[in-house]
Amino acid sequence: MRTAKLIFTSGLFFLLFLQQDYTREREAMVKTQIQARGVKDSATLAAMRKVQRHKFVAANQVSSAYSDGPLPIGYGQTISQPYIVAYMTEIIKPKPNYTVLEVGTGSGYQAAVLGEIVRKVYTIEIIDKLGKEASTRLKDLGYKNIEVKIADGYHGWKEHAPFDAIVVTAAAEYIPTPLKEQLKDGGRMIIPVGSPYMTQQLMLIEKTGNKYRTTSMMPVRFVPFKRSE
Ligand code: SAH
User: Fold this and answer.
1) Were 56 and a residue from 49, 68, 109, 203 both cysteine, which residue would form a disulfide, CB within 3.0 to 4.6 Å?
2) Domain coverage including residue 55
3) Ligand 1: which of 85, 127, 182 to mutate, most ligand atoms within 8 Å of CB?
4) What is the separation, in whole angstroms, between the first and last Cα of the chain?
5) Strand partners, 213
């Protein structure tokens, strides 16, 4: 009888363990890493609280999913630090009616955060396997408003342009002209610019008519923006 009870109790704990959804870890992440550093936009904070970051990392990284740094996602790539994801989301001033282009799908995490806020997210990944994994993951998690394409994001996604905002999550040596051109009038792009494997600058580009205003926001380190041969 006691054994049966023990088995029942441990079974219950095991089920609880399986269902662990890390709500508390996400709450702590938002408070101590994101709000503490000045991110205020309520839609961004709500998305960061909601998206299950642990579902975007490898099984052996789950316990670090809510830590204050980037994490490896395979193929030499990384999922950005939570604060940087939140910062880049807030800076484009996302609105529910927005169509956003992301370049550098990676795990799909940044796309999911955007997808919680805006109408439609188009995201491009250059590494075939990563793009396919992200696409499957996003579908399994129920994101119906995110479309993944495997391509060199340098060229943007002409069929769906112009975009209200563009988020680039790989460091380019310069700002790709096609991406600037695919911004709407009044649109905003956030992109790390600089040499690979060095500190880069996160740049904000604001388009008004044919004019672009570029502002350096902060030093960052991103994986390199690659070009297809
Ligand atoms: N936003 C991702 C993190 C991306 S890491 C996330 O939330 O997980 C940067 C990604 O950009 C890598 O997956 C890399 O393969 C991809 N990348 C690099 N150059 C690219 C290019 N020219 N076009 C599309 N993707 C590119």
Assistant:
1) 109
2) 4-220
3) 127
4) 68
5) 206
Task: Decide if 139 contacts 148 (C-beta within 8 A).
Answer: no
Confidence of residue 17 (pLDDT cuts 50, 70, 90): low
What six digits make up the tokens of 222? Answer: 């991103």
Which CATH number do you get for residue 80? 3.40.50.150
Instruction: Classify residue 16: in a domain, yes or no.
Output: yes
Which of 125, 133, 174 gets mutated to test ligand 1 (max ligand atoms within 8 A of its CB)?
125
In a domain, 226, yes or no: no
Q: State the distance from the centre of ligand 1 to the C-alpha of 111, rounded, in angstroms.
A: 11
* Number of folded domains that form the chain: 1
Q: Which atom of ligand 1 is nearest to the CA of 110?
A: 7
Instruction: Kindly state whether residue 228 falls inside one of the protein's structural domains.
Output: no
Tell me which amino acid residue 144 is: K
**pLDDT tens, 186-224?**
999 999 999 988 899 999 999 999 999 999 999 999 999
User: Which ligand 1 atom minimizes the distance to the CA of 167?
Assistant: 1
| In-domain check, residue 227 | no
Q: How far is the CA of 118 from the centre of ligand 1 (A)?
A: 20
For residue 43, CA distances in Å to 91, 95, 222 come to 12, 9, 25
Extract the tokens encoding 201: 């600058």
The model's pTM is 0.93
pLDDT digits (tens, 9 = 90+) for 89-136: 999 999 999 999 999 999 999 999 999 999 999 999 999 999 999 999
